[in-house]
Amino acid sequence: MAATWQEVVTAKKENRRELTLNGQDISRRIDESGFDNGVYDLISLNFLDISDTSMSELKSDIGRLVNVTSLILCNNQLVSIPAEIGSLTKLKVLNISNNRLKDLPESICSFPEIHTLNVSMNSLTSFPSVSSLSSIHILNISNNQLKALPDGIYDLEHLSELRASSNQIAELSPDILNLSRLSVLNLANNKLVDIPPELSMCTKLKELDVKGNKFKDRRFGKLVEQCQTKSLLDYLNNLLKKEGQKSGKGKEKKKRNKDKTAADDGDVEELKNMIEVLYFPSDKGLTITVTPAVLSVRPYIVCCIVRNINLQATNTFKNFITLQTKLHETVCQKRQSATIATHDLNSIKKPLTYDAMFPHALQIVPLSRQKEITGEKLVETLRKEAEEQRKEKKRSTISGVHKYLDLLADKVQYPCLINGNGQVISFPPITNSEKTKISKETTAILIEVTSSTNLDTCKKVMDELLYKMLEIGLGELRGDKQHSDGGVAGASGDTEDTVVFQQPTAQKLLVEQVKILDKEGSMKVVYPSRTDLISGVIEVLRPFD
Asked: How much is the pLDDT for 263?
C-alpha cells in the first residue's frame, strides 16, 4: 500500500504553498513504506523542502509542480535527477547539494528565472552548458570531480558568486573579465597553474580564494597563501598592464608587415580586433574644462572621440543604442556608479565645460523631446513617473531603473556638460541633449562617461564600451582596402571598384584622445592614456609610444 503522510494530506486540503519534510522521522517513513508520491499532486506549492532524509529517487512527476519557485533537496541519497525537472520554469532556487549524483540532465540548466543553483558535494564529472541561465546570480559547483568550468559560464552577466572549490579544474579563461558583477570567486583546491591577468578587470570582486593550487608564478603563489584579495588583484593588474605595453610596442610594426606579406601571398592572416589610439592633436584637439562647482556634485569625467563610425549598416545603430542600455544596467549598476552619454561630434562647439548649475537655471532639450525644460522640472517629472510605476506594481520602493534619481536627492546644484555656445548637452545621470544626439548619419562620436564614485570607474566603463563596440562591428575592417582603379570607394562612374580585405571579421576602432583640464588649464586626465585599454584579447596600437 502506498504511503500516505499527514503533512501531505493537510497541505492538499488547505491548498498550502509551502511544504517541509526533513529529518530522521521522514527517513524512517521512507525506509518502512516508501515516499508519499502525493507530494507530486500539490501543484499549488511554490516552496518544497525535502532534506536530510534517505530519499534516493525523485520521480519524473516532479515536473507537475510547475508553480514551485524554491526546491530544496539537499543532504539526501539521490542518485539521479529526472529530465522533467526542466518543466519547473518558475524556479528561482534549486539546492541539490550533498547527494550521490554523478551526472545531471541538460534540463537542469534551462530555468529562465533561476537565481541560485547549488549542486555542491556530489560526484559530478561533467556539467551541462549554463549559457541559458541568463538570470543566475549564485552558482555553487564545489566538491565534485569537474575538470573544467561549465560551458557558457562566461556569458552569465548577472553572476555574482561562483564557488567551484575542490574539483579538478585546470584552467580559467581570460573571458572571466566578462563577469562584470562577480563579487565572489572560489577556486581553491583545484589544478590551476596560473590565473589570467584579465581577472583584475572584474571590478566588483571582493572575495577571491585560489588556495590549494600549484601556481607556476611563485610570487603569486605566496600572495595566494596570504589570501588578500586586493593584493592578488593588484598583482594581476600589473601583469595585465605589462602585457598590454609589451604588445603595443614593437610587435605592431612586425604584425603589419606580416599582414601585408600574407595579403601579397594570397593568404589570410588571422587578425584580432584592434583599437588604434590617435594622439591628442595639439592644434585642434578637444578639451573639457572642469569647474570647481561640479567637484562636490559629480567630480569624475572621462571622454574620447571615436572616428570613422558607420551606423548605417543593418541594425548597427539599434545595436549600439542597445549596448549602451545594457552597460547602464550592468557595469554602470543602473547608472549608480557611472553614466554614459554619446554626442554627434559635428554638433559639438568648442570649448566644452563640465559644470554644475542650480536646478532652475539648468536648461536642456532632453532626448526625444523638442522643447527646452529646466533640470528642476525634468527631475520632478521623472520622480512622478517613478512613483506612479511603484504604485502600479505595488512595490515599497521605486524600481531599479529610477534609482539613479536618488543620486541627485540632496544636491543643491546639478552636473552638466556645456557646449561652446552655452547650451547644456548633457545632464548626468539623467539624460543628454536632443541637439547633439547621434543618428545613423553620424560618423564621429564624442563619448562621455561621468561618475560620482571615482575616476577609475569612468575609465573601466569607457574601456568596456569600446571593447563592446568592436564586438558588435562598429569599427573599420582591419584589412587595408585596395581599389583597382585608384579611385575613391563609392564614387560615381562606370568602373567598378574592387575591394580586397585581408580579414573581413577583424575590426579596428579609431579612438582619439580628449583632455580634461582644471580651471587653470592644467591637465587632470587624458583618455585613453598609456595605462588604459589594457586587454589580452584585442590589440592596442599607440603610435605615440
From this structure: 46
- Mean of pLDDT values over 204-211: 91
Residue 241 contacts by C-beta under 8 Å, 6 or more apart in sequence? 531, 534
Q: Which spans in 249-315 are helix H?
A: 251-265
* Mean pLDDT, the chain, whole residue set: 85
The string of pLDDT tens digits covering residues 423-446 is 999 999 999 999 999 999 999 999
Number of domains in the chain: 2
pLDDT digits (tens, 9 = 90+) for 387-396: 887 777 666 5
Cα–Cα distance for residue pair 491/484, rounded to 1 Å: 13
Range of the domain at 471: 251-488+495-541
Q: 164 and 255 share a domain?
A: no
Q: What is the CATH number of the domain that holds 428?
A: 3.50.40.10
pLDDT at 512: 95
**Cell numbers at residue 457, please?**
570607474
Which of the listed residues 137, 169, 201 is the one where a domain comes to its end? 169
Domain end, chosen from 146, 169, 192, is at: 169
Q: Write phi, then psi, for 235 (nearest 5 degrees).
A: -65, -45
- Distance between CA atoms of 461 and 200, rounded to whole angstroms? 14
E strands, 291-334, where?
Answer: 300-307
Give the tens place of pLDDT for each residue, 92-110.
Answer: 999 999 999 999 999 999 8
Pairwise CA distance, residues 213 & 143, whole Å: 15
Where on the phi/psi map is residue 159: left (φ > 0), alpha (ψ -120 to 50), or beta? beta
Domain assignment present for residue 274? The answer is yes
How many whole angstroms separate alpha carbon 172 and alpha carbon 193?
Answer: 10
Cell triple for residue 353?
Answer: 565645460
Residue 49, C-beta contacts closer than 8 angstroms, at least 6 positions apart: 19, 20, 21, 22, 70, 72
**What is the CB-side half-sphere exposure of residue 69 using CA atoms within 13 A?**
6
- Give the amino acid at 106: E
The amino acid that residue 532 corresponds to is D
Q: How many Cα atoms are found within 13 Å in the side-chain-facing hemisphere of 249?
A: 8
Do 315 and 418 lie in a common domain?
Answer: yes
What's phi and psi for 20, nearest 5 deg? -120, 125
